């Protein structure tokens, strides 16, 4: 199995590149942000809970997020591999994912970390907010908090994968195709090992 963690701060381009990667490598895309937004739209209990955190740019509590993610993996028993997009975002989430995948006889092949500087992130998020309808992209204070939370709680997750020799930093500035080809080059290095 090829299991990829697509990593990077808000606005780094994870969603865009995930779409291209799933098409090329035939993977199942699990975006925790998308799943939360679907629950908000469907007005589920999980959606109501998630919204109260997302509206402030805070993380949804680990236990809720981990249970939801595991349930989504279970729903796709035939998948040839997964792209985890927006997960893990904390060290406890990374530990939980490792244990869960071990119990399934698999593991993360590589973390691909999109690297984009803060100024560019804010520009991209405000642009996305102007036409996506995402409330958390419209407000500069919420954006600032998401980046702060990323720096304080999420950035450290890279160390978890680096310690296992599974970390690849990718320049996230350039055309979509340029960035995609950088990602594919990195994937190829790990694909052989995971076969
Ligand atoms: P972005 O990467 O642009 O912030 P996402 O769609 O990945 O967008 O996430 C939107 C929001 O959903 C986050 O700010 C957070 O509140 C919540 N969220 C998504 N993934 C997680 C996660 N793994 N753990 C906790 N909260 C999460």
CATH-scheme architecture = 3-Layer(aba) Sandwich
Stretches where pLDDT falls below 50 for ≥5 residues? none
Euclidean distance between termini CA atoms: 6 Å
> Helices and strands, in N-to-C order?
EHEHHHEHEHHHEH
Task: Report the average pLDDT across residues.
Answer: 96
C-alpha Rg, in Å?
A: 16 Å
The dominant shape is globular
CATH superfamily: P-loop containing nucleotide triphosphate hydrolases
What is the CATH topology descriptor? Rossmann fold
Brief synopsis:
The chain has helices spanning 14-25, 32-41, 45-54, 62-74, 91-103, 118-132, 140-154, 157-162, 176-194, and strands at 4-7, 28-31, 82-85, 110-115, 167-171. With 195 residues, the protein is an alpha/beta fold. Helix 1 (14-25) crosses helix 9, helix 2 (32-41) packs across helix 3 (45-54) and helix 6 crosses helix 7 (140-154).
Features:
single chain; 195 residues; alpha/beta; Rossmann fold; 5-stranded parallel β-sheet; 9 helices; 58% helix; 12% strand; binds adenosine-5'-diphosphate
Task: Explain what the structure shows.
The chain has 195 residues and is an alpha/beta fold. It has one domain: P-loop containing nucleotide triphosphate hydrolases (Rossmann fold, 3-Layer(aba) Sandwich). Helices cover 58% and strands 12% of the residues. The chain is built from nine helices and five strands; from the N terminus they run βαβαααβαβαααβα. The chain has helices spanning 14-25, 32-41, 45-54, 62-74, 91-103, 118-132, 140-154, 157-162, 176-194, and strands at residues 4-7, 28-31, 82-85, 110-115, 167-171. α1 (14-25) packs across α9 and α2 (32-41) crosses α3.
